[in-house]
Amino acid sequence: MIVGVTGGIASGKSTVARAFAALGVPWVDADDVAREVVEPGEPALAEIAGRYGERVLQANGGLNRRAVREIVFADESERRWLESVTHPRIRQRIVAHLERLQAEGAPYVLLVSPLLFESGQSELADRCLVIDVPESLQIARTAARDDVDDAQARAIVAAQMPRSERLARADDVIDNTGSEADLAAQVAELDRRYRLLTTS
Ligand code: ADP
């Protein structure tokens, strides 16, 4: 069984993934995979450099993400081209990672993705778990964790999928307004249910 885990910025996805891992449940992080597919030596990086040239490469041969972001931000068709190069490879590699973890004997596995619904990665999951917090708390936790002020955090939250839409697509919800101990208790309860589901 694959459980997709998502939520807005600073909702607690990483914290939840670590709590599941403490119970023996491994995860694949879609953001990590998105970085993997454009590492030096990867075909996607060669295609991107072939289209945009040196300006999208760093001195060490890695991708200059800021340069790419600027190109696709300014041009919708370039954004679609970039996604056509990266998305199938990201998906393929996510599947490969998930299969490896399952073959290694995981009771079930998590796919942690900030864009689980937006990217269609939810199709890979048997269930979707949404980490939910009020926007005010998201903004406060983003500002405390990242080097951004309240206004910037507010803008990031406003640009993401609305809370109500995410909740409408959830099979399960974790309310992360409480302490990390509250969170761990909810994870333990879900883990118990998920293990029952995998054996039924
Ligand atoms: P995400 O991966 O969704 O961006 P994180 O798991 O990194 O979110 O959590 C965002 C920030 O909020 C981190 O600094 C984390 O330590 C903190 N945090 C998460 N859950 C709680 C909680 N229940 N109580 C207090 N702080 C929390």
TrEMBL record:
Question: According to its UniProt record, which reaction does this protein catalyse?
Answer: 3'-dephospho-CoA + ATP = ADP + CoA + H(+)
Binding of ATP occurs at 10-15
Major site of localization recorded for this protein: cytoplasm
What this protein is called in its record is Dephospho-CoA kinase
Q: Which Pfam families match?
A: CoaE (PF01121)
Establish whether keyword Cytoplasm is in the entry: yes
Similarity field: Belongs to the CoaE family.
An annotated Gene Ontology molecular function: dephospho-CoA kinase activity
Per the UniProt record, the source organism is Billgrantia desiderata
Query: What SUPFAM superfamilies does UniProt report for this protein, alphabetically?
Result: P-loop containing nucleoside triphosphate hydrolases
Residue spans crossing the bilayer: none
Give its localization: Cytoplasm
Name the gene: coaE
Query: Which pathway does the record list?
Result: Cofactor biosynthesis; coenzyme A biosynthesis; CoA from (R)-pantothenate: step 5/5
The enzyme's E.C. designation? 2.7.1.24
Enumerate the UniProt keywords alphabetically.
ATP-binding, Coenzyme A biosynthesis, Cytoplasm, Kinase, Nucleotide-binding, Transferase
| Highest taxon, organism lineage | Bacteria
Q: What does this protein do?
A: Catalyzes the phosphorylation of the 3'-hydroxyl group of dephosphocoenzyme A to form coenzyme A.
